[in-house]
Amino acid sequence: MDLSNKVAVVTGSGQGLGLAYAKDLARHGAAVVINDVNHATADAAVAEITAAGGRAVAVVAPVGSTETAQKLVAGAIDAFGRLDVMVTNAGILRDKVLWKMTDEDFDAVVGVHLRGTFTCVREAVLKFREQGDGGRIIAIGSPAGQRGNFGQTNYSGAKAGIVGMVRTWAMELQRAGITANAVCPVAVTAMTETVPLFAPYIEKMKETGELPPIIRHEVGMGTPDDAAGIVSFLASDEAADITGQTFSIGGDRLALWSHPELTATAFHDGGFTADDIAAQWPIVFADRIESVGEKFPEELTAQ
Fold first, then answer.
1. pLDDT (tens digit, 9 = 90+) per residue, 97-110?
2. Rounded to two decimals, what is the model's pTM?
3. Are 180 and 247 in contact (CB under 8 A)?
4. Which residues are CB-neighbours of 100 under 8 A, at least 6 positions away?
5. By CB neighbour count within 10 A (0-12 exposed, 13-18 middle, 19+ buried), where does 186 fall?
6. Which residues are CB-neighbours of 197 under 8 A, at least 6 positions away?
7. Contact (Cβ atoms closer than 8 angstroms) between residue 91 and residue 190
8. What positions carry a catalytic annotation?
9. Superfamily of the domain at 7-256
10. Dist CA 113 CA 5 (whole Å)
């Protein structure tokens, strides 16, 4: 796959998943703008990519504001002359249960994930439309946004919002040849190391370098590098007709998420009173209740 004619911005790409995306894009020939809040981390990422023969520059700034979004796009234009791909990966966590989550906890996470995705994509789309030859939006979501996750009101809400925006952008941008897709990666990172269910497997991986099949296959969790291929694919000309989709990738598993659909429907002339709903509930809806949270193999949850 040849991306040598592409220029990509990857937010939050100094380390972890973002760095894996940037390295894979560069390995396929794309020029990459690295973004991080730490100068040393960003410079190290650039050095790693250029040492491997790739092209990269750094823009050090916290994602969220329009000013940072403008700096990122300008960084691509100044260094490489154009912009073709915007990968919105930057994120933080402030995990707490609802009744302990502060306004600051909520606003910080939503500001980076949801607002940061919005501002960076808006700025990229302005440049794409000016250039007139399409573009690629790849927004990083999470299974937490699809299924919910305990202690992550802010994160789950932001990630669900990202997928909702992607569906809207797919409609708004199609005539301009700009695709918009979401990717929900599952990988061993600083964000997942603290999950008790995975902790023993991650600790063992640090010793052996490997994860067992139940984690790689059934859970679909692997290394950041395992999640990078879908980003390079969606950035490529091969994916020109794919838009408005949400992918899951991790370990040895690649999957496509469904969009929400009506699963049970009832009708009542004149509309529904509360009593009408109570009468219809056990007949039409009771056995169609959807579950919440991620589903994991019993072998893991029984421990």
1. 999 999 999 999 99
2. 0.95
3. no
4. none
5. buried
6. 296, 300, 301
7. no
8. 142, 155, 159
9. NAD(P)-binding Rossmann-like Domain (3.40.50.720)
10. 28
